[in-house]
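Sequence in, structure out. Go.
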Amino acid sequence: MPTDELSDVAVEILLTLSQQPGHGYAIKLDIEERAGGDYVLGSGSLYQALRRLERRGLVAVDDAAPPTEDARRGKVYRIEGAGREALEGELARMRRVLRFAGDDAVVSERGSS
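Output:
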């Protein structure tokens, strides 16, 4: 995977943080709610992805964030400018793919050879 490519989990995290900062559990809940139950994100996968995004400078721990109502929730993350740019690039790539696909007929026509 090229270093500038984002995983599905990274895209989901950045989408959530593009709306507002949040702690890990809030990020997990937002992603799962947005997916309508079709996507369950394990804590290990979430925190590994957050660490990778933080190392790449796409997200950061928000030290200025007020403490949450539940101190056990831990660090609050926020998206950085580079994270917004990476997310915008990935969303543009997804839009190009969807435009090319057009509708289900593209996939069925190619698969029927």
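Check: Strands lie at 22-23, 59-61, 76-79. The chain has a mean pLDDT of 85.
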